[in-house]
């Protein structure tokens, strides 16, 4: 009887949802300062444009790669001071989730983990380019995910987990 309950507990644990971060890495990185060095002699009145995107793809088994892409363009007046882009990626072990939970994990939870790494990478590049650190504000990926689900429902698109 003891063996059966132990075996039953092990089987239940194996089916319980699992999440594990396996690796975080920079997949791609770019920095351009097209007006250097002349831009350094101008009054600094920057305007920042941030574009972010996420994508995910299944790997073998229950492993997934999630890539968060941040593209930042900073203008000083009418001129581009610099452009920086980073693709911060992670490999995650995710299993035992229903489709809605899997979609939320890949679309919001994983990007929330990756964002601080991408933000630090961008700040480091910008400072190395001799510009002031950007200190990008935190991003609420849960809210962005909810907006995307709402947009998809309004347009009649179906949600897919790859």
How many domains? The number is 1
The CATH homologous superfamily is named SecB-like
User: How many DSSP E strands?
Assistant: 4
Order of helices and strands: HEEEEHH
* CATH architectural group: Roll
Report on the architecture of this protein.
- This protein has 162 residues and is of the alpha+beta class.
- The protein has a single domain, classed as SecB-like (Bacterial Protein-export protein SecB), CATH 3.10.420.10.
- The chain contains three helices and four strands.
- α2 crosses α3.
- The model has no long low-confidence stretch (mean pLDDT 90).
Produce a short descriptive summary.
The chain is α+β, with helices and mostly antiparallel strands and 162 residues long. 36% of the residues lie in helices and 36% in strands. It has helices spanning 2-15, 99-128, 141-155; strands at 18-32, 46-58, 63-76, 79-95.
